[in-house]
Amino acid sequence: MLPEGLSAESLRDMYYCMVLTRTCDDRAFALNRQGKIPFAATCQGHEGVQVGAAYALKRGTDWIVPYYRDTALAIAFGVTPREQLMCLFARKADVFSSGRQFPNHYSVPHKNIASISSIIAAHVTHGVGMALAFKMRKEPAVTLITFGEGSTSEGEWHEALNFAGIHKVPAVFLCENNEFAISVPQRLQMAVENVADRAAAYGLPGVICEGTDPVATYLCVREAVERARQGGGPTLIEAKCYRAMSHTSDDNQLTYRTAEEIEALKVRDPIPRFEGWLKERGLIDDGTTEELKKKALAEVNEATDWAEEQPPPTEEDLYTHVYASGPLS
Ligand SMILES: Cc1ncc(C[n+]2csc(CCOP(=O)(O)OP(=O)(O)O)c2C)c(N)n1
Question: pTM higher than 0.85 for the full model?
């Protein structure tokens, strides 16, 4: 039996989305090592939680307020490999910021993707404000706000959840817990065992799910989205996942965890695990997975060549996207 709300086709689409993200991620790190792009932030190990969450939302109605590690979430929400690569190459036609933002700092209002803040947890208050606006305007939208477990040590995170709990805003807080905030392990970030335990302080349900499993995350986020849409208020979800690589291309994880620890994480890789889940249910076969991997590579190759050829921003672009161009509705 298929999970409620997911057809065989959408499950295969979810798989493709995860593979496409992994291919983009590998490409970003290769380009960084070639000196072609300045920076890359990995999503590897987070693909399951992000794709599962995206499929639990209503595209065109709901909004995501993501953070820098959310490549799979952004791709599942409509960001294309060309847009992703163009942002990494910092080209003029970059839809996020005309090539003048930090890489992976999405901002695509027409796809309901809010602007990302580099200041960790700052966007959580923004997302709550958006959700409050939806509630006041009686719009049916729900806001999904994502962050890592380290971000939950920030004052703004607590202020945002407190306010959201009081005003029962239609938001879902999704913590992608990969157990590290750059080099700082979770036990040095908080005295509680689970991020979800923090929800009780704000009158919210706190739920834990297996974040390497897109279907488990989908079901968990779907329930929270329904609750929020019906006026039941926000939920804090903690998706347990892991970070397969260094924090970013500027970090070296071997300075704070061993090669053996990193190797051991591979058994949790969301892609082969989901592939096995689909195969067990006869929803995909070896031929199709190979075909989809080839398709993803061709798409990313085309996007890389295309993005690299685009011109960089010019002096005239300096003020584009800095000030609002018209009255704010
Ligand atoms: C307010 C603030 N403090 C510190 C930083 C530097 N910084 C960037 S990412 C990061 C770690 C965040 O960890 P977490 O929230 O767990 O997310 P992860 O990167 O692990 O996915 C830190 C400390 C920052 N950007 N903003």
Answer: yes
For residue 155, is it within any domain?
yes
- Is 64 strand, coil or helix? strand
What lines the ligand 1 site, CB under 6 Å? 69, 118-120, 147-151, 178, 180-182, 247
Domain count within the chain = 1
Cα–Cα distance, 247 to 129 (Å, whole number):
29
Compute, in angstroms, the gap from residue 153 CA to the centroid of ligand 1: 10
Do residues 47 and 24 touch, judged by C-beta distance below 8 A? no
Question: Is 328's pLDDT higher than 80?
Answer: no
Q: Which two tokens mark 140?
A: 């049916």
- Locate the ligand 1 atom nearest the alpha carbon of residue 247 and give its number: 19
Residue carrying the six token digits 């990193």 = 262
Cβ neighbours of 90 (radius 10 Å): 21
Classify residue 283: in a domain, yes or no. Answer: yes
What digits encode the pLDDT tens for the residues 134-169?
A: 999 999 999 999 999 999 999 999 999 999 999 999
